[in-house]
Amino acid sequence: MNRDRDLTRRHFVAGTAAATAALAAGPTFADTYPSHAVTVINPFPPGGASDVVTRPLAAVLEPILKQPVVIETKAGAAGAVGAQVAANAKPDGYTLLSHITSISGFAEVDKLFGRTPKFTRADFIPLARFVADPCVVIVNDQTPYKTLKDLTEDAQKRPDQIIFSSSGLYSALHIPMALYAKAAGGLKMRHLPTNGGGPALTALLGNNSQALASSVSACLAQIKAGKVRPLALFGDKRSKALPEVPTMKELGYNIEYYLWVGMFAPKGTPAPVVETLRGAFKQAAATDQFKTAMTNLGQEVEFLDQPAFAKFWDADAARIEAAVREIGKVG
Length: 331
Hints:
This protein is an alpha/beta fold. It has 2 domains: 172 residues, D-Maltodextrin-Binding Protein, domain 2 (3-Layer(aba) Sandwich); 100 residues, D-Maltodextrin-Binding Protein, domain 2 (3-Layer(aba) Sandwich), CATH 3.40.190. It is built from 12 helices and 9 strands. Strands 1, 2, 3, 4, 5, 6, 7, 8 and 9 form a 9-stranded mixed β-sheet that branches. Helix 3 links the parallel strand 1 and strand 2. Helix 3 crosses helix 10 and helix 7 crosses helix 12. The longest helix is centred in the N-terminal third of the chain and has 24 residues. It is globular and about 65 Å long. It starts with a helix and ends with a helix.
């Protein structure tokens, strides 16, 4: 009986010591997250869709997270460089990735060329989608094209003479132009890849290219200034910001394509941290400040929380992967 009391006492002392140690250790990592600045990797140069959406989002997030939200640009390879940096980052919630539609196709492009993918979609946790911006075909104001038919007919007459710029090979701005060229009977246009949507638009403004498929948000200011002319939208309906511009489907092309912007965390990020970020993104997307910023860019907030975004991403990735295969090997 004394032996039983000794065992009970030892268990009590051991349990008390463990509880005391746990209390002394303080709150868990998840309870204190975030305790310092959060970095969001922007994989594109300034001026593209990811950049113009992420910066106002970061400004709204700071007071919600009560920590600085720092935008770090890691541009290159049509967004693949920044994505790879994020995929290899410590999964602690302090390095996030803002990316666009093209994140879905990188692994498929590698497969197309017989390369081992540097990362796949499985390396990321989709957290939230903020916008789904239909692309629009725009032309330089120095060109004679007033309609998509004008551009199409001239490209048919002058193969390889018209130059279109993009954010890089198989990028989010290359794919829609390639799909349009194929749907229009295999148009032959010269491709000028750049390292982002901003530089692609700069090339168009400088008449180094004559056409570009851009997000509405990235080019609306230039449209309003009369420096570029919109010809056709890739959305399923006309844009409120560009009500006079017809859709591809209205013009007889069965093409629908959106440039969306979403936020991702590296695989392995703790579930409590993911939940904290989900709540913060949902709150940020609902603020008047963020909504106004998006309205000024010519678009509406199209927020999807993690479960809905994950489902959307699966379906959209299947479309992008199919588009990459359809385009095939290009240099």
